[in-house]
Write a structure and sequence with these properties.
This protein is an alpha/beta fold. The chain has a single domain (about 10-240), classed as Acetylglutamate kinase-like (Carbamate kinase), CATH 3.40.1160. The chain contains eight helices and eleven strands. The protein has helices spanning about 30-45, 60-65, 70-95, 115-125, 145-155, 185-190, 200-210, 225-230, and strands spanning about 10-15, 50-55, 100-105, 115, 130-135, 160-165, 170, 180, 185, 215, 235-240. It has a nine-stranded mixed β-sheet, sandwiched between helices. The two termini are about 25 Å apart.
Amino acid sequence: MSERPVYTRVLLKLSGEALMARREYGLDTEMVKAIAADIEAVVAMGVQVCLVIGGGNIFRGVSAAAAGMERAQADYIGMLATVMNALAMQGALEARGVPTRVQSAIPMATVCEPYIRRRAERHMEKGRVVIFAAGTGNPFFTTDTAAALRAAEMGCEALLKGTQVDGVYSADPRRDPAAVRFQELTYQDVLANQLGVMDAAAISLARENKVPIVIFNIHAPGAFAAVVRGEGKFTRIVARAGSAA
């Protein structure tokens, strides 16, 4: 088993739901600690890590908009939920001795830094984990799109999306035992077949900036470190089959 990473700088995208474990909403502190331990292992490999965490475990703007709330207002509330998750993850990482900074696209100087690209790069160069909160700072954009944007801005070699399953399947493997996992897909495959891996804006942004996307199961212990070494189960989304990006 190789201990050498295949990436030197990555962005990890987590949904808010990934922090819930079996709860119906909110944070499961043991799950947050477990993910923090996985991130610590990757940082210990010398990999520069940044994160984007969704807020769906606390508030989901699209659902609120469907229920009658004005969409932009709902999205701003959702952005604040991502800040809460970011601060929780920061606390778990720093409890393990991993230096961490939270940068928010919506300035809130009392609790975190504003998003400044070059400052974020400097933090990462010094070995600090940077958590990007509040999405892009604009309504109507998902945290998936924010992840693709930040990955491109930071010059990340890959966008790793931790999900509930170990890759992209032809159908929901939790419902269809005959579902087939794809080892590799192209951006066009995802868009043309509406696979729902990430929203179309995020996929298009990653494609334009040649940022490979890797889908894996964040709940499998050690999976994040394994993927960074190019091991384990995952699906890569790239420009052309067999290409690096």
